[in-house]
Amino acid sequence: MKIETISGFLHQAGFSCTVYDMGRRMVRLTPQQFRQFEIGALVYPTPLQQHAWLGLLGWQQYDKSRHFIWFLKLPLDEQGKINPLARDDVLHYLINQLGQHILTREDDPDATSAIPHGFTPGEESMAMFHAKAAEQLGQPASRFYGPARDYLAGQLGYEQWAFVGMQGLADVVAHLQQEDNEDRLQQAIPQLPLQPFGQLCRFLEHVTISTGMATVLISRLANRKPLEINRDELVAIIRALAGCTDSKLRQDFIRQVLTGPYANDVEILAAISGRCWEDLRDKELCRHYLECLAINNHRQNGFTSLLMDLLAIPGMRETVLQGLRDPNRSEALAQAIGQFFKQLGV
């Protein structure tokens, strides 16, 4: 039987595989989604920079101790579908290896350097992926897990964050619904210094969080005047809220942000559209976002970059275009749109 896809090859070789989107939020793709994407029948749901950023965790059927981890950055065509030549590059490499170098070696836990279109995630993304992978493989959390739990319980003093391993925080978030981890996090969040808080938020964006957790995150800013709020802290909270099950709570917070002193800050706007894009399917919220984007502090370059990124996400184009065509739009938005189309040569 002719093998035409990566998933088909792995199945024939006796491997099970879980695929994660690594581009925006670390979300698992269903086996059907990945197969449909591979054969060009599915537009990639969360493109970033015209690529599908994938993390593959595979293991030999009936023996999860024998596994592999790959990270693939596959180019997309103008429709957001897979470039079949890139898929074939990876497939041909795997077939030529005849399975000899598929399994992860002890001294090379992420053996993607030789695979075509491979990439190395950032340190935080790698930590979160390993935390999720260990849980799925039935492996224990890292040796940093216990000390991270102790830190979040306040046992070491919250100022002693420099001694807490990044992998430990990722492990706690990956096991959020186990032991008393969610309670520990909620108790610690109001007291954490900015750096460990920001790191924690960048892990939380990759998991589902409860309304209670989201409320604690937002309440961290409750007693501050708008100009006393740290921009990086606000970005971190927006990102952490991306996985909140309470979309209304998140959207209300975004509305509040878009009326505050950072409403035109490109980092804030990038966090909203890059992590909470689904909320911009609300027409009113989308129009408000576009008005802020039109006068962002990076001017036209910021407008063009974030708008193109938003338009590339499946399901966003119609709502965004409606906002751009709104007859009641401001003059600033009209001018930004005109420059946008001029840059595209339209």
Structure description:
The protein is of the alpha+beta class. The chain has 16 helices and four strands. It has a four-stranded antiparallel sheet, with helices on both faces. Strand 1 (15-21) and strand 2 (27-29) form a beta hairpin. The radius of gyration is 22 Å and the shape is flat.
Per-chain topology:
Blueprint: H1 6-12, E1 15-21, E2 27-29, H2 31-38, E3 51-60, E4 63-75, H3 84-97, H4 123-137, H5 145-152, H6 166-174, H7 181-188, H8 194-204, H9 211-219, H10 231-240, H11 247-257, H12 266-275, H13 283-294, H14 299-311, H15 317-324, H16 331-343
Antiparallel strand pairs: 1-2, 1-3, 3-4
Helix pairs in contact: 4-6, 5-6, 6-8, 8-10, 10-12, 12-14, 13-15, 13-16
List keywords for this structure.
single chain, 346 residues, alpha+beta, four-stranded antiparallel β-sheet, 16 helices, 4 strands, flat
